[in-house]
Specification:
About 5% of the residues lie in helices and about 45% in strands. The chain is mainly β and about 425 residues long.
Length: about 425
């Protein structure tokens, strides 16, 4: 059972910055708890507490558990490559022999050393190979003596988090235009820099994809940096055979936990039907930036009217990694969107429809027509509608029975100097 003994008490008052300092010099090693309590200006009572481990010569009465574990203590929560981590081993007994290992997926280093006293501090140089984290394991064995015929064994493990920020690659993607029309050419500028802003050469994969498809799949693009430098699990287990012979069966492995449809319609060049409705506008597996970290990607846009998302993931020869995204909207001032079933059956008399959108600031008289091969319109193929600014109009046609095979259907709309057309091929199944 812990026994608390007050070693010092002193009143303090916070200043205008709401802070106060309290300093004390420990007389001996051990775990010290600092309690603060008082009342604020409104008379509200408050309490808080913290703790600190203090090493010292001689035997220090650390907390002792009955599960043969040692709670190792680090001097920092995170380290940089080149730092030296100081790890306190608060052992319940003095003058033992210990096995110190640095582990992750395997044992990276090992050392058998004496532990004089029971508050040894290990100095662990942080190597770059330890990115982004590594585990320190200490196994202590105190042989039996005349005074203590039972050998003692203790085991402790702690994770050292190593900052990998210097390995982050900053990627910037910039389009030469934010809004485009179908089949228009867009040039993306790619920039890769290190954490200081200096350009560095890198290799990137770039994917320009319809964002509507990504939203349907709940796409969460994997961060290249986190893929390489995210939390790494421990793949080493530790056990001691002598504890079995002493009927001290215990789990020696510390559990480690991890931290942690189609797009829009379409649009083509003037007097051309939109037929290219790809979900992926472009895939570039290995674009390389130059010595200054700059590169370009030129893409001719498909016919789909949607928001396109360009995702770039990059890596350098020295394993800096990063990613970035940018978006481009593909649209037209006048759009015709087909309303049709995905397939037909021979003998069907489908009613074909279209929705005409006007994204201009003025009303437009639009001539909308339906035609094609393998389908015949009953009545007028062309219809005239007035579409108000920012509004839409629905148009429909009745058709004659369709024969088996396929029907190539074309919807077109034009007026006020604006034009759009869409062409789709619909399968027509034979009647079983």
């Amino acid at each position: 059972q812990p026994e608390d003994k007050e070693v010092e008490s002193r009143p303090v008052r916070t200043g205008a910055d709401a802070r106060a300092e309290f300093a004390f010099t420990p007389a001996a090693g051990g775990f010290y708890r600092i309690f603060a309590s008082g009342r604020d200006g409104a008379g509200n009572e408050f309490h808080s507490a913290g703790g600190v481990y203090v090493t010292g010569p001689g035997y220090v009465p650390w907390r002792v558990s009955n599960d043969e574990r040692i709670e190792l203590v680090t001097d920092k929560k995170q380290y940089q490559p080149g730092d030296v981590a100081h790890v306190l081993v608060p052992a319940p007994f003095a003058d033992a022999t210990g096995l110190v290992t640095i582990e992750r997926q395997g044992v990276l280093s090992k050392e058998v050393r004496p532990f004089a006293g029971n508050s040894v501090v290990l100095d662990i140089p942080i190597a770059r190979a330890y990115l982004p984290n590594v585990f320190v394991t200490v196994s202590l064995l105190k042989p039996s003596t005349n005074d203590n015929p039972t050998p003692e064994f203790r085991y402790g493990q702690i994770e050292l988090n190593v900052s990998a920020e210097e390995q982050r690659l900053n990627v910037k993607l910039t389009a030469d235009k934010e809004k485009v029309q179908p089949r228009e050419t867009v040039t993306f500028t790619v920039e890769t820099t290190d954490t200081t802003g200096k350009g560095v050469p890198a290799e990137l994969s770039l994917a320009l994809v319809d964002e509507a498809i990504l939203s349907l799949t709940d796409d969460q693009p994997a961060d290249a940096f986190r893929s390489l430098y995210g939390f790494k699990r421990l793949g080493v287990q530790t056990s001691a055979a002598h504890t079995v012979s002493l009927d001290r069966v215990a789990d020696r492995a510390r559990a480690t936990a991890a931290e942690g449809g189609k797009g829009g319609g379409g649009g083509g060049g003037e007097d051309e039907s939109r037929t290219d409705f790809r979900f992926t506008a472009h895939w570039e597996p290995a674009l390389k930036t130059d010595a200054n970290g700059r590169g370009t990607l030129t893409v001719r846009m498909p016919d789909t009217l949607t928001t396109w998302r360009l995702t770039g993931r990059g890596i350098t020869k020295d394993s800096r990694a990063g990613m970035a995204e940018t978006k481009v909207v593909s649209s037209k001032p006048l759009i015709v969107r087909p309303v049709t079933p995905r397939f037909l059956t021979a003998g069907d008399r489908p009613e074909m429809g279209a929705i005409v959108y006007n994204f201009t600031d003025a009303a437009v008289d639009v001539s909308v027509s339906l035609g094609g091969e393998g389908i015949a319109v009953e009545g007028d193929a062309a219809k005239l509608v007035k579409v108000q600014p920012g509004d839409k109009q629905v148009v429909s046609w009745k058709t004659a029975p369709v024969p088996a095979g396929s029907a190539k259907v074309r919807w077109s709309a034009g007026g006020g100097g604006l034009q759009d057309a869409v062409e789709l091929t619909l399968p027509v199944q034979a009647l079983a």
